[in-house]
Amino acid sequence: MKWGLRHIHCLVAISDTGSITDAAIALGISQPQASRILRSLERAWGVTLVNRAARKTVLTEQGRRAVEQGRHLLTFAESLESTARGERLMRLGYVSSAAGRYTPSLQRRWRESVPGIDLRLIHAKGPLAGLAEGLTDVAVLRRTPDPAKYRSTVVGTEGLMAACADNDLWGRRRKLTLEAFAGRPLVVNTQSDLEMDLWPVGVGPLRAFDVDSVDHWLDAIAAGRGVGVATRATADQHRPIGLRYVPIADVPDIEVRLCWPRGQAISGLDTLEDIFRSLYS
């Protein structure tokens, strides 16, 4: 049996909603239809993608990998359609946050300045926010990419924040230092663009728990499994119940960069740089 984008849409919806029933509602189809689509995909691939339970569904390891790649496929398909329609599009990738509290202003100013090009924000995994896979045209990163492959320019700076559960003693502090992390379990998002080289070797927190997305990172910290480090933009954009952020006082601000592949001419890039710089100034 052949499989197509509707199968991937269904699998991603199941991952996002946590159940086949809720995925069906999100897709505008019936629950039996969603179940049939999932079963047909599993038969086509010869693997079990979802473990069914009475009240929820849990992705298998194969299912989690398929969802990650499936999101890339859907993003590429959407971009392909836009190109075929003759639409002008800039795909701006980000990992945890595009511009934090400035993101709405970024989108509004772009529409005012470049009405002929649609700015589409794409939440992508990995330290390059989809650039390496060709899923994004430009990425906003908190690290410097390989200069042999990518060009980049600094458009602003951001402070770093400690993240902890809201019942943690840190939650009462107005600020922290790097020394306060000594011996504490650290939750690390392995797909983040933020580099965790803040402490000398042998000093600092204990890397106790790795996750593969910002959502899992937030959940783990709110559950008290450890503490974390994030940028101010992430703290502004992601404030779930059960989590607190505290400024880290003794580290320099990190650079916020716009990055793009070498050799590519990108319409509107100069305007995007100007907007970012004005927002961060």
TrEMBL record:
It comes from Nesterenkonia salmonea. One of its GO terms (molecular function) is DNA-binding transcription factor activity. PANTHER family: LYSR FAMILY TRANSCRIPTIONAL REGULATOR, TRANSCRIPTIONAL DUAL REGULATOR HCAR-RELATED. Keywords: DNA-binding, Transcription, Transcription regulation. It holds the Pfam family LysR_substrate. This is LysR family transcriptional regulator. The keyword Metal-binding does not apply. It comes from the Bacteria. Gene3D superfamilies: Periplasmic binding protein-like II, Winged helix-like DNA-binding domain superfamily/Winged helix DNA-binding domain. Residues 1-60 form the HTH lysR-type domain. InterPro entries: LysR_HTH_N (IPR000847), LysR_subst-bd (IPR005119), WH-like_DNA-bd_sf (IPR036388), WH_DNA-bd_sf (IPR036390). The keyword Iron-sulfur does not apply. GO terms for cellular component: protein-DNA complex. Belongs to the LysR transcriptional regulatory family.
